[in-house]
Amino acid sequence: MARLADIQMQVMWNRLISVVEEQAQTLIRTAFGAATREAGDLSAGVFLPDGRMVAQAVTGTPGHVNSMAESVKYFLQEYPREAMFAGDVFLTNDPWKGTGHLNDLTMVTPVFKGRRMVALFASTVHVVDIGGIGLSADGTQIYHEGLFIPIVRLVSRGRMDETMLKVVRANVREPVQVEGDIYGLVACNEIGGARLLAMMSEYRLSDIERLSEHIIARSRAAMLAAVRAWPQGTWSCSMTTDGYDTPITLVGALTVSKRGIDIDFTGTSPVVSNGINVPKSYTDAYASFGVRCVIGPHIPNNAGSLSVIRISAPEGTIVNAPFPLAVAARSTIGQMLPDVVFGCLRQARADKVPTEGASSLWNVRLAGGQTMKGMDPALIRGATRFNVVGFNTGGTGARPGKDGLSVTSFPSGIRNVAVEIMETLSPVVYWKKEYRPDSGGAGQYRGGLGQIMEIANGESAPMIISATFDRITFPARGSTGGHSGGGGRLSLASGATMRGFGRQVIPAGDRVIVETPGGGGIGDPGSRSRDAVAQDVRDGLVSGDCARDVYGM
């Protein structure tokens, strides 16, 4: 009978994961913004009434999912269970209580069976615009970065707060898209709740407490077992990134013990005046994800498995930025944290850990029909007004026994937005989008390649790029003799080099050239298979000069 009970629990556990995956797919199908619809920049999950995450959708990003795992508890602090009613929906984009910056909306919906709350569904979505100066690192306070929505009751017993929607529409550049995404969040949580109640009816469950406790306990036990299979000890790693004005040093000390993993970011650079600061919730999300990529990667993500990893960072460091510092481009630094974690874990088990990659996204954010300092307003008279973002990246680091992945979003997992979609949404024209030869760090196992994009405004009007690009001066490092990946570069076709951070003008008739970084290599390049080098040359991934001078062909 005990074995049968375990099987029944596993069946219901799988069903619960299917419920939250349908929740996520509903959001993808109803969202207006390309970030969600095309790139999958979202998260979805189901929580116990006390705020513990029970299951998350497979679709989504670590920055959203892992930070959302804690954000639901903030909703409950603001609106306790007894203050929630059937038909209510709650919303925020508070970076310190959500997923790290104002462009991410987090929504929580309570689910009732009769008069009893049985669960909470939560979801997040990245909106194309939230006002302010736009998604840029140029702001110096959160007040510059857009509309700040505290935790509010958006829907009260089935009635939408139209005043709140008016405030949102009045403060964003793309009101139709943003309002559409809000309704998409409402719909996805509603579908999740309906599917959960149908599941409970089918399995004759009055609540999901027993099932959830089983899931959380089994996940925690499995994660602890995975940790205990690793050597015990403490290892440290330091990594330098470009930063907005001056280089940033990220320092992590990781301790593996029988009670789990502790990561301490003491020694990391202090906060800066511009918007690359990282709220602690986002640091927790990506640091824990770095661990989960290597240790217990197949264990479902929930309150149980996440509880085994504990993260600390002194307040005032760039990875624990207090309110009201600017945080819009928090992903630039935050998505480097798995590389710091890998640097620690590699010292314990080099045979299990990849090397550094491009890591943080190179999203191309373009705006037209808008002015900025130094631009003649007459130049945009009659030009189409647009605001679009293309999700792009460089190469991942080489893996033990394998090359890195070219042009692959790690650790974010976000999909690329197709050129055809970008050109449909705006007058932007992509003249080139191709692999960047020799950008993958040489090694016995080569780093993944970056890409080259050449983009213009098809109306021959100026446009603005909001750059949040790192790995230009300090590219991804190789390991055990592998070479560093190629550094990134932002420039104009007319020849000028542009800054990696900040809003900058692309003049009318000119083109912006975006060259994303490559990942680092593993092992001595001289040990690479001759056949592999020859194939890389035939495929155009490695030049003949590189094959001769670096690989000795």
Structural class: alpha+beta
Helical proportion, percent range? 25-40%
Task: Give the distance, in angstroms, between the N- and C-terminal Cα atoms.
Answer: 65 Å
Could you tell me the number of beta strands?
A: 19
The count of helical stretches stands at 13
> What overall form do the CA principal axes indicate?
globular
From the alpha-carbon coordinates, what is the Rg to the nearest angstrom? 24 Å
Mean pLDDT over the residues? 95
Low-confidence stretches: none
Residue fraction in strands: 15-25%
Kindly describe this structure:
The chain has 553 residues and is α+β, with helices and mostly antiparallel strands. The chain is 30% helix and 21% strand. The protein has 13 helices and 19 strands. The chain has helices at residues 2-30, 34-37, 62-78, 162-171, 175-202, 209-228, 280-294, 303-306, 330-334, 337-348, 419-425, 530-539, 544-549; strands at residues 42-47, 53-56, 89-92, 104-113, 116-126, 152-156, 159-160, 233-241, 248-257, 260-264, 309-312, 364-368, 386-390, 428-435, 451-457, 463-468, 489-492, 501-506, 512-515. The strands form four sheets. A seven-stranded antiparallel beta sheet has the order 2-1-5-4-3-6-7, with helices on both faces. Strands 8-9-10-11 form a four-stranded mixed beta sheet. A four-stranded antiparallel beta sheet has the order 13-12-16-18, covered by helices on one side. Helix 1 runs antiparallel to helix 5 and helix 7 (280-294) packs parallel to helix 10. The protein starts with a helix and ends with a helix. The relative contact order is 0.11.
